[in-house]
Amino acid sequence: MKLLPIYSALLLLFLSVTASSQVVNVCKTCKFSTISEAIQNSDKGTQIIIEAGTYHETQILIDKPLSIIGKGRPTVDGQFKGEIFKVSADSVIIKGIQIKNVGTSYTQDHAAIRIAKSEHFLIEDVHIESPFFGIYLEKVKNGTVRNNLITGNATKEFNSGNGIQLWQSENIEIYNNEISGVRDGIYLEFAHFCTISQNNSHDNIRYGLHFMFSNNDVYKNNIFRNNGAGVAVMFSKEIEMLDNTFIDNWGPAAYGLLLKEINDAEIIGNLFERNTVGINIEGSNRVNYRNNDFKNNGWAIKSRGACYANLFQKNNFLHNSFDLAYNGKLNDNVFNNNYWSDYTGYDLDKNGIGDIPYRPIKLFSYVVNKTPESIILMRSLFTDIINFSEKVSPAFTPDNLLDSQPIMTLISHDRN
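The structure corresponding to this sequence follows.
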């Protein structure tokens, strides 16, 4: 009786090896000289090895479970004629190839790789150059996109696509990809329970990351650098944004992170450095901002209204032109135990907490919000006078908008 489990295990191993033993090669002198021919003539579970070289193909349909593996980084050149790979089957692997020159269209979203209505796929170590859209995931589940390089040459929003796009998808992992030169580095719409981690999205025309109507997602350890307007997160709930870096997103309408209609979220352990605005917030409630660093931004935080029951705790505000801009005279948010580099209070009882509250809103910030041209008066004696008057007797900002227990020393945040 004890031999039965061993026999069953060996049988399963034999069947799995047998099922995946077929290998088909593609090269100029092989039986199949094109990828499409190899796919059409292969059984389910076949491993198709594409030898080094350049293949001029488009509309490559993968409609059965297959592995497409590049050997020596072969190039699939679409010659700007249209979409290149389209996957409509489950359990497909595409790995180790270069794809370039996707066709541009104003009526169709041509992609280097499109995966539609599929599950359990893997896109790995693929280099994509000159895409319209890079990797387009449509109504998919339980897949992984990792270790890919997507490089575009977009100059305008209207004639460019996104690097990695998810639409109506669930349980997708986007890991360790580098994306640049496209419209939005990563775009999600109606994409739930996804994890976006360790990606480097930089120098894109619009956003490094852009998502809408997408709930229960996690974004962690990503770098969003020098994008047109940073990252936009809109109309979503139960989002976790952890340990990301938002840096060098400069421009007249730029920010590190835009939150619009976001509820019940965690913004923890992030670095916002050298952005026009660190976080631009509108209509977002019950968000926990903790252990973030705001360094050398124009505004660390701009709250544009309809933001309630938010908690700002144990954040560092370091040498920003303005720590906070706030619209309205009512405040339902809590600032507590933050470090403010502009705090000039004292700590007589030596408990590490300032003995007088800190008011993060300067009157000059309020003036600039109302009249942007007044920014030319910054660093002037006039600015110092009006800021001091608002600190002594608040008239334009909510009385209760203050940090009642400011931390006296810089809070250490481990960013390994």
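Residues 1-19 have pLDDT under 50 and may be disordered.
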